[in-house]
Amino acid sequence: MARRVSLLFVWSVLAFVLGCQTTYYAVWEKLGKEKRHLLKDNVEQVQAEQEKASEEFKDALTRVKEIYGFKGGDLEEMYDRLRGDYQACEDRAAAVHERIAQVEQIAGDLFKEWRAEIDQMDNAKFKASSLRSLEETRKRYARLNKTMAKAQSRMTPALTRLRDYVLYLKHNLNAQAVGALKAEVDGIQTDVEVLVNDIAKSVKEADDFLKTLE
User: Domain total for the chain?
Assistant: First the structure.
């Protein structure tokens, strides 16, 4: 049984990656999960990725400040750590982008299916009630999607500044170059603080949205 579940999970992942949504949903339905459950799971995964991203960007900012405050020691080693922090941020940003894309796909398919099923109903009261639920869920999702997209967009300027800082240090690894980067340190701090704030708002909006799916 465990092997069967594992194989179904692998097939579902492959189906999603390859873009075969029908197969993806069919596999998960065999495991007892419908689109509503998948949407909930993926929103929670976006939250988790965003929270990790928040911590990783803050770690990178701390490393930048450490380098700017360089008073002696192994500058090469500090640069290597910063480069690693930047790579972690870049990888996490890509993971967030992928998760949000999954949420958008599943939400769109869920709402389309929900509307089609409402049209199949004969009971007028049930139909009206289901339609109200659909519209309310759509509105709440629209708010969530807006905050997720905003937080995601904040990653670009922060990554760009970090990348430039890392590359400049790579080409000018000396104390004089480090001292010339104060303006960039301030800019990185501003971008990271804005990003962290928007991620917090997105995570909170996700909590509110998830309550509607319970």
Answer: 2
